[in-house]
Design brief:
This protein is an alpha+beta fold. It has two domains: about 30 residues; about 170 residues, 3-Layer(aba) Sandwich (Rossmann fold), CATH 3.40.50. The chain has seven helices and seven strands. The protein starts with a helix and ends in an 11-residue tail after the last strand.
Amino acid sequence: MNLYFLARCFCLLLLLLTAGSCNIAQAVDAVTRPDPEIKAKYEISDRTTVVIVDDPGSHVNPVRLRREIASSATEKLLQRRAISDMIDPRDAFQVARKLDKPGDPVSLDDIGRAVGASQLIYIEVIGFGIQQGPRGLQPRADLRVKLIDVDGRRRLFPADDGSGGSFGASVSVSVTQQELQSIGVDRLNEAQMELAKRSGVAVARLFVNTKYTPSGDPLLGQ
């Protein structure tokens, strides 16, 4: 039983003590109705999977933040039990560095096969940075995501339906100054790390159902 559920029950008790009988049914419905849920964009198969981050524009520096994005996505998918067998992203980074050659980049299929993956989550970084605004740091990341079937040498998600999906599913992540303050982040390197972690989680949520509170925050563990 999570803390959010206990808090809702406590609110229900207060409402019942203070509300008239005609409002009791409304109070019960407000607390017991299902939490808002956003469905996964694609129902991913439980097959050996690896996450790869590609940053052709060199937006993400230092490089370890790219690994953090991949690791965060990996951890979330494992935590939500969407996939039971995931390969350490560091293995994919090492293979890519080893096989990549100037003018002859290694293919995603080759990376996936080299690390023993059946499918591959490819994350392309379009933008990643921290702006210094009038209210403090303003982190934002823009990504494109594809799911590749390594065995079948084809793209699984997004579907190539002529709507531009061949470029990948767009994912945008931002962190407000209020959110940074609430977790005690006030330095540039800390904000970069937080943005990298949230970017990975946002990618994972493409493939899992996510429940949210009425205020729009993901429930604990989601």
